[in-house]
């Protein structure tokens, strides 16, 4: 099945999303187009990479992911097709590709080099047709000349030792939940090394000594802390907005301190 996902910062009030889908379907009407989100904050590469990284592995290998988000820059971006973890990504070389995985791409090509197109609507005129071609079976190496690498941005890194894991809030979701970069595997490894001794999770003025498994384990208005389906630490308030009620936002420090 030919499958293209589509994510953008276009919103849904205008014709832009439909125009890009029309460009894809005009190339191949049998392609299935799945919307990931069109409410990415404008030119917010961090927001876009978080959303796409959270979901692209759930799609079948060979899926093409069209990214309609670019930096607000005076310099025009290159438009690339990238093969990464057996998925294909089409978008501007904005640093986004470097934030999706710790693995290196196995193919990178410039899709607007062989027959350059100048357009004020690149998602429709360049990216859409390229995504359709890949989804229809065209070899990525036939899409354009190979490129040595992509623009690199660096994600926030956590610090880990036997005594402490120090991370940050990397996303505040629609519900006001605080999503961190503290990985469940990292926590479990250190906790095992420490003999599963007590630990304390610290954020803002809060100190929590227990991990929850489900949101509804706490009463309405109470804080919960759990590892979500993406295996990262998430902080929330049952039936409340944790970001607003705890006064925490993007980049807020979160730590797990182990008692040794």
CATH superfamily of the largest domain: S-adenosyl-l-methionine hydroxide adenosyltransferase, N-terminal
Mean pLDDT rating: 94
Order of helices and strands: EHEHEEEEHEEEHEEEEHE
- The stretches of 5 or more residues where confidence is low (pLDDT under 50) are none
List the domain count as a whole number.
2
Distance between the termini: 53 Å
Largest sheet: 8 strands, antiparallel
Counted by DSSP, the helix tally is: 5
CATH class of the largest domain: Alpha Beta
CATH fold field value of the largest domain: Rossmann fold
Number of strands: 14
Determine Rg (CA atoms, Å). Answer: 21 Å
The SS-based structural class is alpha+beta
* Approximate shape: elongated
Provide the CATH architecture of the largest domain. Answer: 3-Layer(aba) Sandwich
Helix content: 10-25%
Task: Give descriptors for this structure.
260 residues, alpha+beta, Rossmann fold, Elongation Factor Tu (Ef-tu), domain 3, 5 helices, 29% strand, elongated
Describe the structure.
The chain is an alpha+beta fold and 260 residues long. The chain has two domains: 3-142, 3-Layer(aba) Sandwich (Rossmann fold); 159-258, Bacterial fluorinating enzyme like (Elongation Factor Tu (Ef-tu), domain 3, Beta Barrel). The chain has helices at 16-27, 45-55, 122-135, 184-193, 242-246; strands at residues 3-8, 32-37, 64-68, 79-84, 87-92, 107-110, 159-160, 164-172, 178-183, 199-203, 206-208, 223-227, 232-237, 253-258. The longest helix is centred in the middle third of the chain and has 14 residues, at 122-135. The radius of gyration is 21 Å and the shape is elongated. Residues 167-254 form the S-adenosyl-l-methionine hydroxide adenosyltransferase C-terminal domain.
